[in-house]
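Purpose: get a first structural picture of the assembly so the mutagenesis plan has something to point at.
Setup: two entries, given in the order below. No constraints added.
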Amino acid sequence: MQPFAYRRAADERDAITTATAQPGARFIAGGTDFMQLWKAGLSAPDLVIDISRLPLDAVTVRPDRIVIGALSRMSEVADHPAIRRDCPALADSILASASPQVRNVATIGGNLLQRTRCVYFRGAALPCNKRLPGSGCGALDGENRLHAIFGASGQCAATHPSDLAVALVALAATVRLRGSSGERVLPVADFFQLPGEHPERETVLGGGELIVEIEVPRSAAAARSRYFKLRDRASFEFAVVSAAIALDIEDGTIRSARIAAGGVGTKPWRLHDCEAALAGARLGEASFRHAAERAAEGARPLSRNGFKIELLKRIVRRALETVGEVA
Amino acid sequence: MTASDERSPPRIEAALKVTGAARYATETPVEGVLHAALVVAPIASGRVREIDDRQARAVAGVVAVLSHENAPRIAREGVFIALQTPVVHFAGQVVAIVVAETLMQARRGAAVVKVSYEELPAVTAIGQAVDPPFAPRTAGRTATDSRRGDPESALRDAEVTLERRYTTSTNNHLPLEPHAVIAAWQGDELIVHTTSQAVFAHRLAIAECFGLAVDRVRVVSKYLGGGFGTKGGAWLPVLLLGVMTARQIGRPVKLELTRAQMFTLVGRRQETIQQLTLGATRDGRLTAIVHDTLAQTSTYGDYADPVGTPARVLYACANVATSHRLVRVNAPQPNPMRAPGEGPGSFALESALDELAHALGIDPLELRLRNFADHDQHTGLPWSSNGLLECYRVAARSFGWEKRPREIAALRDGRHRLGWGMASACYPVYRMASEAAVRVAPDGSVKVRCGTQDMGTGTYTVLAQLAASILGIPLARVAVELGDTTLPEGPYSGGSIATASFTPAVEEAARQVCRRLAELAADDPDSPLHGLAADRITIADGYLRSENQSEILADLVARAAPEGVEAVARAAPEEKSRHSSYGYGAVFAEVRVDPELGEVRVTRLTAAYATGRILNPLLARSQFIGGLVGGICMALHEDTVMDERLGRVVSDNLADYLIPVHADMPRFDIHLVDEDDPHLGGGIKGIGMLGTVGTAAAIANAVFHATGRRIRDLPIRLERLLPD
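Result (structure tokens, whole complex):
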């Protein structure tokens, strides 16, 4: 718990300028994850810039997309009628996250930036390359029941904890970033980085760069999207395995599918093989079973999380069946 | 029952708690108090080589750094006290204490104490133990081993045998309120505000450790945010460190544990590996039970839960052998937690009975009825009372058990399957000596004083009820003082012992007050009751009455005894009882399982309990629900995960160590079965532990009924329900 200076950002430019000038600065919005990290000594900024009052909290419905301000509260987004109607997977994923109290405070942008729940990362003085590069990974040969079967490196196998991010990847959402050198828009899937040799770096966000909004395309597929989550207790718990699914269906045929999984990857994980198996397939049990069998292509389980392969296939199949039934 | 039920007043201290007026130990204002932060070892075994505290001492506000190099020597038989030697027994052990003017400064100092270690090989799991298992001197308060009849021959001759291995995981108590102590010395006198389930036991230990007369030490614990067994003996080692630090520095010191420290420094429920063998006739009569338990203890202390108790006493069986063995692991010291022994032990026994019932094609409840024990075959004594059969009947009827299909996976709801399971529960009645004082003031108000504690379960309220009932005055006129060693000595709060112990003392004190009031009236020429026979005077509704004469109680006291009328009484259980006493219960669970995805939710819990006299049905029901929740989380959630290579607890926070949330709660249907026990003074059997006994088995049995999957290892995680 290192003391820090606190400053409320006057406006967006002030926030970005200040953070760019001071590499030890951090933004705070809802603070639901940051306060835990700070108390555990996992984050020790010398300046905390409060962006929570910046006017970035609007949800705007455009003809082709829904634009969600990064400072929108999770609860407001989950309850938004257009989001419930046009991208139910997004609303589902938020309601499956955290608790009502947390969702009332936590922001959409902050949700994407929350750190992993890997016990070696969170635990004081345990080996963790993400927390302390070079200290080793406790999970690779340790307590890795909840760790990734996709995207791990020899350095790290921590899962990305966000439910929301999984839904956003399935919905082909983009994220708009603003920094001192301008603005850029990226697919949410590309916003996250694989651990590789640098597990301490989780996103492409540059110093002083701010997430300003998320854009979710509106489509028939998005409108029948769903999010499914399995966990070890009924609420207030991260995913053991989850899946977000959006099917573009015409006349009983799947034109294309987007499927992303949570709890299984070091970042929200697109199931490309599964999607390929569904493209052009007729709706129905046989297609779903065939596609679900391919959900774990390329998975590399660790000592205690091999069950996630079977669980992933099963939840994808359940998701397909449920979306298929409604179609 | 409702809160307005006369026997069920809500907690008298509730308003104080919800308004924040109730002052918990750590909130006690003490002038000039310093704050302590702990430095703990990250290694599971070894020695402290060097402590470099220069940087810590340089932190603004830091007053002192204590370690084994400079800490005063204190010792107590059977208690491992840190900072006495450089030896590290387990990861998380205290190796230094940083004291500073503020908590933040202390924690900042603790973060920069540099400790180097000489690491030694560690045994970090039961399976790694090098030395063979050993027999501890006792298992809880019971004998380590038991044997009646000839179990080996009986198993050889049995028509049916069943041999199974069950395991339960390490759990932590984790009351909401972290442990804390504020120790303030004034010369050779000491006042200790602390989170204590046992103020008198803690006072004695402190006095002996620091060479003080007990009357020089005062221990205060007015309100507790839960205990579950972790705020008694398990808390003592760190409590002593707090007192020691205050003495060494010469100023009051506050030491409060962090949540992470609560996973290593204040006890745990030990993991068990239980081998259970049953022999039975084809019609389901038990002919042999062999129950052997292997569990973990620390490298410096022995503790074994009485896991074998249910196997010894719950069922009629002529041939029974039980044993408890321990292996030493470089891990925190285990201690009693929520139904210690009976909780994990009943998981094995009640699961095995379910397996036997299934193998024999007998209804699980019917199997238990056929094996009802009409006396305690372990001791040969008659029961003081035994309402188990009535519990079965009441709970089964309310649950609708007669509609249970015998077949597996027969109850369906869409993709989900429902399962019904049941289990028996028993927990021994423990009592100890207790004193209590009851006083009537000149204004007619009453004060009960008893040095026991209220863990949040309702002790304040039942103490008031006991006095109000005998003195015939409204509850609102009774004040209660507890949690202080300046009061008459009361029982500790643990093992469901407190209420059963203080009730006879409070009732006796109240009766004595009544007698004195009657005598006072009879002897007082100014009383309308003057000259009447004192033993014919009754007291009710604030009046003394006899033969058409009456006087307002307050008037009498104000006039005839302006200093008030007080009686102090002591009650103690008979040394050697001629009866065997247990509380009983039957718990029925319904689970809803998604068989393809492995998710299990408990949807209904119906339970009936026979625990002697119930003082407050509302609070009793609450406490049973608390116990049942403990059973739910034993079954489905709680698991202290240790990295075996590092010997470190890695789930040391409430995000990674799961306890159930509201969404996990089933519908509770609790029944209190009347039980009149003439052989117990006060007629009270404890209720705190009983709800946790049998519940995990009832849930696992319901999971089997829903899916055909027999889960013998707790907690039940979703992958255990997937195909192997």
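Chain A touches chain B through 32 residues (CB under 8 Å).
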